[in-house]
């Protein structure tokens, strides 16, 4: 373990991703999602601010599925390339696992950033976003923070149950995420700030809901200032964000520590043909 450092393990993980389909998936999906939605909303007869809010809600809602697919492909590739020797056969499994989570999460952040930028382009050309770039950046960061637990959860699923179960749970997670804000494009059609209006309740403890909620609240905290009673509404949005952020941090940290403890004793019994 003497020669192992965080930097070297992360670099090794990046090198193994060179030429991988995962990089192309992140870039293509990010750009395609942003451009297609941006072009559609730029031509749609809705309020630009609510359109931007709706886009980030949808983008966040699909993070459970995206994380599941990416992790499932990565773990399956590890199995095919020598029974996961690059993860289970190294001196420090915990360091290897931490590096894998970090690299995959950063790829997710890259895809989210590309989608946000690609969405902004046609919207700005058509007349404006209805929200400042600072709100777009906050929403993108919020989705990334809310997604970290999903990567941890998906890795645990992929290691224990395999590719198909992981993706199936990702599909379920996206459905839960969409329903948590009242349905797809709910705020756009009802002309409300649905991220702030929906009561978190038990959903704030469900990791699938965090990316879409944090993405939406990142935009809505700026939109609130354009509405009557804007300062009070913005304060309420801030409280809603905190109500979700606390469970997010607690569960992410707990799951991360549990996964690091578990990987030391993990024995892979899955078949490559899963």
TrEMBL record:
Membrane spanning residue stretches: 21-42, 54-75, 102-125, 131-153, 165-185, 244-263
Keyword vocabulary terms for this entry: Membrane, Transmembrane, Transmembrane helix
Pfam family, one: ABC2_membrane_4
Keyword set includes Repeat: no
Domain of life: Bacteria
InterPro entries for the chain: ABC-transptr_permeasesu (IPR022294)
Identification of the protein by name: Lantibiotic ABC transporter permease
Organism: Bifidobacterium mellis
Lineage: Bacteria, Bacillati, Actinomycetota, Actinomycetes, Bifidobacteriales
